[in-house]
Design a protein that fits this description.
Elements (H helix, E strand, L loop, with lengths): L1 H19 L8 H26 L5 H18 L10 H17 L6
Helix pairs in contact: 1-2, 1-4, 2-3, 3-4
Keywords: Coiled coil
């Protein structure tokens, strides 16, 4: 659950950085890199968890909470492409992923 909370916190911080550049989104390579890092980290976690689930080595928490949260955040929410400019598309992706992951997190980790 800590991994999910870490990703959630990283998305919150990235959202704050994107908000700071609104309404005239600035070209910011740091934000672009941070978005790419988060998206890649989610993909790596998904892959590792999928392997554990397939081998029946995953905990119930990993299988029924963490994996679905990551899958939904990656597939449905983080639609902005890696390398895209900071803008409304990236902002929408980040906020949507925040909301999804927050749904799966227990109150004490938000």
């Amino acid at each position: 659950m800590k991994r999910l909370a870490d990703i959630y916190n990283r998305l919150i911080e990235l959202g704050k950085k994107i908000d700071a550049s609104y309404p005239k989104y600035k070209k910011d390579d740091d934000i672009k890199m941070e978005y790419a890092d988060i998206k890649n980290d989610i993909r790596k976690l998904q892959s590792a968890l999928r392997k554990k689930v397939n081998k029946n080595e995953a905990t119930r928490e990993e299988e029924y909470i963490i994996e679905p949260a990551l899958n939904q955040a990656y597939v449905s929410d983080l639609r902005a492409r890696i390398g895209c400019n900071v803008g409304q598309s990236m902002a929408d992706s980040v906020y949507s992923a925040q909301s999804t992951i927050m749904h799966y997190l227990p109150e004490n980790l938000k």
